[in-house]
Amino acid sequence: MKRILSGIQPTGSLNIGTYLGSIKNFVKLQDQLPDYEFFIFIADLHAITVPKDKQKLRKLIRELAALYIACGLDPERVNLFIQSEVPAHAQMGYLLECHSYIGELERMTQYKDKSRKQETGVTVGLFTYPTLMAADILLYDPDFVPVGQDQKQHLELTRDIAQRINNRFNDIFTVPEPLISERGAKIYSFTDPTSKMSKSDDNVKSRIELLDPENIIKKRIKSAVTDSLGTIKYDPEKRPGISNLMMIYSVITGQSFEDIETAYADKGYKEFKDDLGEIVYQELKPIQDRYHELINSKELDAIFDKGRERAIEVSNRKLYKLMDRIGLGRKRK
Ligand code: TYM
After folding, report:
1. Ligand 1 centroid to residue 24 C-alpha, Å
2. Tell me: the pLDDT tens digits for 3-33?
3. Domains, the chain, ranges and CATH?
């Protein structure tokens, strides 16, 4: 059976960047591809590469799961699990570290950016993050991995590692393809429309979180940085602010940029932002309602238990296969 897999880190409340770039796409695929098996996990091991408060981490893991389901992820169709509850991820991560090179990890732009910002206390975990991510993926032999633009380089490294191990140990892994949607794969910050909207940005005005109330959603859009031209035209190079807002408008409504430009031909930023505020609110409202029903229910634990069981079954098979080929431990039958 063909498979699709993806993951999200519980590092902060989900924002519309992650929603439009990743979750919305995943939900669409789940509905369009009935013959595939789906895995989605909460990448909590990835979240501890920088220090985390225990209570906050636990809360974020649960919140993320409830939000995934509230966004339309069908737990009957998708194996939803928590990465740290499936030991093969860390084990496979180590095996892949032994088949990766320091030089290739040093080239990862996300590592370079994050370690530059941190200056002191950069952990080894932050450095080996991409090999753990490769393990997350390769354990399940997915054909496709839907992600946003910022994960493309990690996917390329995953493919390189898979090919290297396949050459050395005789076809172990499926070499996965990234699935990056044409629209929404990179939603930018509202305060700096040249950098990615991020869960970990200190400035909350840079984003809309999925659980933000109506007045905050509308306020964030009103205060989003644009330019002084005042016209609604899509031009990401010269006019990143308005183009980013138009992208959000387009991904949610399904309208093309041309349609949006025509509809606002003789209107200004105020009308456009008022409408977009309402559009985003209407998109998030049903998600928030469902989230509040789910967050304290027992349903979530049952979903995690079922997801973990299937993930352990599939991942152990792959882990033991590679261990056997390498010659680790005693031979398994
Ligand atoms: P994370 O948690 O940073 O982001 C989760 C997903 O959301 C996408 N994304 C965005 N898309 C568009 N615009 C944005 N502003 C934006 N911000 C985030 C990301 O590209 C990603 O698809 N390393 C991963 C988690 C991970 C993973 C994996 C993913 C760990 N193991 C295996 C896939 C497969 C991460 O930090 O994503």
Report:
1. 13
2. 999 999 998 889 999 999 999 999 999 999 9
3. 2-184+297-326 (3.40.50.620), 204-292 (1.10.240.10)
